[in-house]
Amino acid sequence: MAVITELSSTLESREFSQHLQVDEKHSPRNVPRFCSIRYGIAFIAHLLNFILAAQNTILNITMVAMVNSTDHHSQLNNSTEALPVGSPGDPDKAPSSPAKAPVYDWSPGTQGILFSSISYGILLTVALGGYLAGKVGARKVAGVALLGSSLLTLCIPLAANLGLVSLIATRIVQGLAQGSGFGGHFGLWQKWAPPHERSRLCSISLSGAILGIVAVILLGGIISQVLGWPFVFYIFGGLGCVCSLLWFALVYDDPVSHPWISISEKEYILSTLNQQVSSEKQSLPIKAMLRSLPLWSICLCSFSHQWLINILTIYTPTYISYLYKVNIRDNGLLSSLPFIVAWIVGLLGGQLADFLLTKNFRLITVRKTVTLLGQLPSSALLVALPYLNSSYITTITFLTLSCGISPLCQSGIYINALDIAPRYSSFLLGATRGFAQTSAVLVPVISGFLLNQDPEFGWKNIYFLTFAINVLGFIFFLIFGEADVQDWAKERKLTRL
């Protein structure tokens, strides 16, 4: 007869606490940190997120050049017949673009569908990518996803010329690849990140997405104006193909298989993760996961924060263009400033979280504090924007502050699954990211609808809705969020009598 016996919660807590302490035998003073292989892996993952986020965001900035801006309130038009640049309207207010670059007559509602189409694919594969990474390795899953997304990015201009349906279909398929990449790369930290360095390593990796947004917004406008908007897709698609080769050459799934890692660093990582690496033979406790309030708090709070992020990334260029009627180059320069600040804060946020842990703050206190700082002030600042649009400097300042402090959540809610279920973290990080990604589908559709009704009140409604969703999401995490390993995620031993 087989009897399942669980490790006692006291033993689990003691082991987890020991792992959060620096192992004396393999102290970080004797093991390199920033010149180490694990930090090298983090910076390559930073590059992966940079490319994927850049390719995801290209349409947000090129849309200013792709549409006939003199007819934003036209009826929904599915035709992609190219219109001459400088068509009726004030030429100073129309985006400046080379004559060879086609311009389309897409209403805000149509643009919303295009913005959200890539998210449909991401939703289907981000959790699957995390699961597959736990089975076949993050190196293969994320590397293939990066290459696929890059090749499809190269095809976007052709798809746009073929028609709206073709463009939407291409974006959905690209989303399938991107979801696998975003979800799959999380599998690295299950085997590479010592518990007391998780915040730093994950924030380095995730902040690459912010830098990718910066690069597209900053350079996309200039490239669109000088060469034409199709070249933004060609350049970032080609760059992604090159980076995928770099990924396969330098990234390995775990310290044991890495050919260049030092013995001291390998022993240090393995000693801290000794009790936390999941067994591939263990099945996922799906029913227990679905009943877990701490896990649901991660999902809902991540969803609310991603709603804020999608509002900022998708509609910052559009909002600046609506208010100040600047050309696409100046729009890119202004829109990139908030994300440059966000990238810096994202890198520093992990340092802050790990510093607080060294000062004996409780892990859940740190997670909730940085989530609070990255969520509520950011959404509150957006609410004030429509009432300050007469002041150019104040508007840009509020946008910069709102976007700049939002990445603090990277060291909070986004890696909380590593705390509550380290054995299933690869799947859960992808699954919670997938749940949050539903906001990327809803935001453009709902925002496009609100802007179609009335642009002035539409912006106010968009920002009020964002604030309300963020408050509710954080309250749920504040009440139910935990950082202790959950019962369903603890090791089970099979004892035969």
Automatic annotation (TrEMBL):
Residues 41-485 form the Major facilitator superfamily (MFS) profile domain. Residues 77-101 are annotated as: Disordered. Pfam families: MFS_1. GO terms for biological process: sodium ion transport. GO terms for cellular component: apical plasma membrane. The chain crosses the membrane at residues 39-59, 113-134, 141-160, 172-189, 201-223, 229-252, 336-357, 393-415, 427-450, 462-483. It comes from the Eukaryota. Keywords: Cell membrane, Glycoprotein, Ion transport, Membrane, Sodium, Sodium transport, Symport, Transmembrane, Transmembrane helix, Transport. It is a multi-pass membrane protein. GO terms for molecular function: efflux transmembrane transporter activity; symporter activity; toxin transmembrane transporter activity; urate transmembrane transporter activity; voltage-gated monoatomic anion channel activity; xenobiotic transmembrane transporter activity. It is found in: Apical cell membrane. It catalyses: 3 Na(+)(out) + phosphate(out) = 3 Na(+)(in) + phosphate(in). Belongs to the major facilitator superfamily. Sodium/anion cotransporter family. PANTHER family: SODIUM-DEPENDENT PHOSPHATE TRANSPORT PROTEIN 4 (PTHR11662:SF134), SOLUTE CARRIER FAMILY 17 (PTHR11662). This is Sodium-dependent phosphate transport protein 4 isoform X2. It comes from Heterocephalus glaber (Naked mole rat). The gene is Slc17a3.
